[in-house]
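Q&A FORM
Asked by: J.P.
Topic: structure of Delta-1-pyrroline-5-carboxylate synthase

PROVIDED:
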Amino acid sequence: IRFWSNIPFITVPLSRAHGKSFAHRSELKHAKRIVVKLGSAVVTRGDECGLALGRLASIVEQVSMLQNQGREMMIVTSGAVAFGKQRLRHEILLSQSVRQALHSGQSQLKDVAVPVLEARACAAAGQSGLMALYEAMFTQYSICAAQILVTNLDFHDEQKRRNLNGTLHELLRMNIVPIINTNDAVVPPPEPNSDLQGVNVISVKDNDSLAARLAVEMKTDLLIVLSDVEGLFDSPPGSDDAKLIDIFYPGDQQSVTFGTKSRVGMGGMEAKVKAALWALQGGTSVVIANGTHPKISGHVITDIVEGKKVGTFFSEVKPAGPTVEQQGEMARAGGRTLAALQPEQRAEIIYRLADLLTDQREEILLANKKDLEEAENKGRLALPLLKRLSLSTSKLNSLAIGLRQIAASSKDSVGRIIRRTRIAKDLDLEQVTVPIGVLLVIFESRPDCLPQVSALAIASGNGLLLKGGKEAAHSNQILHHLAQEALSMHGVKDAVQLVNTREEVEDLCRLDKLIDLIIPRGSSQLVRDIQKAAKGIPVMGHSEGICHVYVDTDASVEKVTRIIRDSKCEYPAACNALETLLIHRDLLRTPLFDQIIDMLRVEQVKIHAGPKFASYLTFSPSEVKSLRTEYGDLECCIEVVDSVQEAVEHIHKYGSSHTDVIITENEETAEFFLQHVDSACVFWNASTRFSDGYRFGLGAEVGISTSRIHARGPVGIEGLLTTKWLLRGDNHVVSDFSEHGTMKYLHESLPLPQRNTI
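REPLIED BY: S.T.
REPLY: Here is the structure written out as tokens.
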């Protein structure tokens, strides 16, 4: 038997048809029956007299949305006391002011005293108004609500308990939202509540325990407890070291310190945790979250049901490995240790990883074969993605070569002095390169990305979180194991972490205290989703790879077909593949144009005609739906332009600032194109496919950036570094440099130390 207040609750719940609670947040979207418990701090205003109408309206909107999705919603609400207090105060003040106006005149109204109001009377006065408010709000969404007032004793009278259960089931069957509240007008008097300046308030413990009891009795799938704190913390909220606990497991109570309770009500966080654990034991999943924060209260309930990382989720299933938050902290600490190593030690780690890629090729290819077979059996990947997923001996050899290039070029990256200035006598300033911090790299269907990015992070001294697609799970697992084996050489195994938990990408993008830079590697949709989801974390990458090749009137016949074939057909799924071919108008109906079309047909490239190109043809290919399309396959658009200036304008209007090419023998035209096209990579008489970190001699790349801040184009080691300033002085103070001070600024540039070119 477990006791709530002074009333025993039987801890063995009735059998549940749907079994145990959900093990992971991602399963919450399957919740059918949901109880939302609204604490006093959520429902009432800051002055604890009256209701927070805007907040309440938002909650009703979310509950209505879920109800209209076919879920069965119930609300356990506080607020009757606060609403009644507002009404009674108004009546008392009005009555007193009228009497005083008759006897003392208007000047005495400011001295009207408000008497202490008894809480049960407030509840009696407020319950009808609170329910009327709920009814009016739910009516806006064509939903009917019904009020049920209970006391804890109702659960211990078997007949009353059956009646309550039957009533609730009947209301849910009729698509009605039950609004349940403790009958505060008749419950025993509570302990005095000092938080309300001497005004007694009905105990909110009753509503915490009521919500848990109701959830178990009604076999609900999910209980959402909304309060005025974000969730459960490992130390009192507001303290310097307090961290929000994402997932709470039974038995973790010993590691938690409970702080003060909320500003209203008798039930603090400890009472909520006890109620949550009791509900969890009964088979109901529980989330405790903040229902008062203005930035999240408008979608907190729907976010929880969608499985987003909001508040604290109670789970009986404890994962075998660390949480992603713990992995982020491990990557941070490991990255700092990695940055403190000697450059030669970091290079040794990368050389070792390169050797492991070739030494362990059989194991790697076997794991990759499993991924390919599973993807083909499930039929969930398109052919271009299957090609990206596939590894081969030649790919692994190329990876190893690239990693050795990174190792060779990494010995003068971290800690390199890029500027020296003598500020004054004996006061020297240096600007040196340092790692960015912790990188989150999210990649799809490309297991070869893992060793590349790991090597670049190691070379630049950054901690690394890797989130790969589940379609490459086996390949990623063994490649990460090899990376950690190489890192173990110098005791920095934790610097590179592979996120294997069921974290949603959107949740990872919210970890702004753990992650310093997000680098997406995948489809344009993935990049756009990450850019949208990232909260306070910069994203490096490109959302689209709409690459152009412009064929000028002075183009070489021998070069045109070779460059176009390589740009489009060598690897059409790549982000640096040709998508739009611009042809000068004078080349139409010439042998060169015919050769281009014939070559594309032989390569089975589907052609889409741009509007101007279609106007020149009697029977044209299918007209393009948009000139801003990344096909990622053996398809491309052909459009006609009148000049190199028009080609540049077209690229600026429809391109993605990735990679654009001109084919011409006219140097003046080429230089105009190179100088005026505003893209990350602009080439003359070369394939778009050269836009690659390995081909640029960077060893590898974490991605291609089309942003204009920090790094642009293929991003290698340099793009993963930032700088810090080191000032070395000798008892210097700013006041010495004032008008009447003894020192003068010199601001002399000093020579840089010789770079290590070995």
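FOLLOW-UP: The chain has three domains: 25-92+117-187+200-314, 324-415+434-533, 548-701.
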